[in-house]
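Our consortium's second objective concerns turning raw sequence data into structural hypotheses that experimental partners can test. To show how far this objective has progressed, the report includes one record in full. It was chosen at random from the queue rather than selected for favorable results. The single chain below, 371 residues long, was entered without modification.
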Amino acid sequence: MSSLFRSFFQGGFECSTHRRKDGVRLDVIHATSHDVLAGEDYKLLATLNIRTVRDGLRWHLIEQNPGKYDWSSFLPMLRAARKTNTQIVWDLFHYGWPDWIDIWSAEFIERYAAFAKAVAQLVHDESDDVPFYVPINEISFTAWAGGEFAVFNPGARGRGDSLKRQLVRAAIAGIEGIWNVNPAARIAHIEPAINVLPASGFKESQIKALEYNNSQFAAWDMLSGTLEPELGGSNRYLDILGVNYYCHNQWIEGNGPIDFRDPRAKPLRKILTDNYDRYGRPLFLAETGIEAALRPEWLRFICKEVREAILDGCPVEGICLYPILNHPGWDDDRHCPNGLIDYSPATKDRWLYGPLAEELSVQQACLPMCK
C-alpha cells in the first residue's frame, strides 16, 4: 500500500465543467450520473481494492451568486465517500468557474480563495480524515487551451502566459484559504508531462521543442517561487505532485504524436524520475488511460514503467486510472470507451470492462506496494 494514499491503484472520475467554444458548459459528473451514484461507484471500486479516488466539485453549481454557497451538488458525494471509507483527492477547479466571475480580474482570485476556504470548512466539519485537494487542475493545459488557442473558456488567444500567472495566483490564494481552516490538508498539483522531439536537422525545430519541454515545468516553478517570485510562490506550496501521462503526450515538433511503443519515445520511467529529481516531492501518476481494446496493454506498459522508476529510486506513490468511468466526449458527446467501468446513459447501470479488470488484478498482484 502507498504510504500516502489508501490504495496504490486509484480511480479518477472525469469532472470537467468548462465551456466549449460553442458556449455549451460541460458537466461530466452529471452526464455519467456519478452525482447521484457516487456511493455505488465508490463501492464498486472498493471491490477492486481501489480505495483512493480523484473526484471533483462543480464550482459553477455551488456558487451561482457571489458568496452564497449551495452544497447540494457536493454533500452527497462527500458523505458517500465517508460512508464507503473512500479517500478522495478533490479537484476544486477542473477547467470551469461561475459565469458571473471575470477570470482576468482580481475578484476571480478573491472569490476562488473564499470558495476554497469554504470547501475546506465544510469538509473539516464533516470528517476527521486528512483532506486532499487539487487547487487548479492542469494550470499549464488550461492556459494553453483557454488562453492561447481558444479551445475552451475563456476563449482567448495569445494570452496563455497571462492566464497561467492568474491561475498560479489563484492556486496560492486557495491553498492559504484551505490551510487557514486545516493546516494538515494535503495539496496536490496536477500537470501533464510531455516530451517534444525536434524535427530532424532543423535548428528552429530544436529550439521550439526545447521551449515546449521547458514550459511543462513553469506552473510548478511559479508555485515554488523559483520562477517569477513576484507571484508569491514558495516551496511550501509544492506538497504532492501529480503527473498526467497519455499516449499523445509525446510528439514530433510540428507533427502529430508518436506511438507509445516508438523507440524514439522517452521512457515514462525517465519522465517520472526527472520530475522527482527536479522537485524532490511526493509524486504519483495522476492520470493515465487510453481508449478501446488497447486499455489492458496500456496499463501493462504503464505498470512496467512505474516498476522500473521505483527500482531506479523514484518513490511513485500511486497510479490513477483516468477516467475510471466511460463518459461523453467533450466536443461531440460520443461515448468514450476509455474507463474501467462502463455505463448505460438510459438506465444508469454500471459494469466492468472485463479485459482491463483482469489486467488490473494481474498488476495488483505484481506490485508489492498493492499488498
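The partners drew two points from this record. The first strand starts at residue 9 and ends at 12. The chain has a mean pLDDT of 96. Both points have been shared with the crystallography group to help prioritize constructs.
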